[in-house]
Amino acid sequence: MKVICALNLLLLCVCSAIFANPSTAPIVTAEKYMEYKKKNGHLNEFIPPKIVLVCYQQSTLQHLLESNPDMKLSNSFTHLYLIEGGRVGVLGGWGMGAPALSIKIEELIALGVTKFIAVGTAGSLMDKHQIGEFIIAQKALAEDGVAHLYLNGKPYANADAKLFSIWNEFSKNHALPSFQAAGAWSFSAIFRETPADVIRVTKEGYDVVEMEAATLYAIGQEKGVQTLSLFVISDTLTDKTWIPHIKEPKVRNNLHKLSEWALKFCKNEVK
Q: Alpha-carbon distance 121 to 228, whole Å?
């Protein structure tokens, strides 16, 4: 009887400790979800590409599809197109914003992808950059609603230093236009950017605004994969006004050029 009572007491203590201090680890992970999909026959033939080009604008994806007729939609992974014998992936048409991006990136990492380069548009803060200018984001401020969940209290995330350097070398060797290094303010509520916000973040060293770079970088840092974000300036946001140029030919043409350079970069990386 005394042994049974002692065991019951021990069990009670263990249960109390568990419920008093529940784990902070995620319950559902991309790894678990991908394993579930494999068990249901959805990913049995999927071979992960070596590098993935992330396209934020649908027009960018469409341009690449028209320019590269050998780019084919994956039969196993939604919104992923494959080229170079499947060694290069192009992710596009998946939605917008950090929450949607985080799901796709986590899933691809769980399947074995280790390198990501993203292209899109960004707004210049306080006239720091010219319309149509090319930007390479060194770091990104985590105010997009997702990135902070990966950063353990750190306010920003960094681009992968090695991939940053490799891109700069590629840009130099291929005589590309100058890419201005910048800090990106990742902020998903585009209709809630205030003058106070603009003043605050520019004082902290962030001079472009977009929606996803911080999440891409934060996930990259946690998972140990390489990530890099490149942008074309499409509008200007100051503490007084917003001036859009998003639909102008210069922005569209430069974004198309950027996507072509980025795809060429990806092809070089898998040679």
A: 14
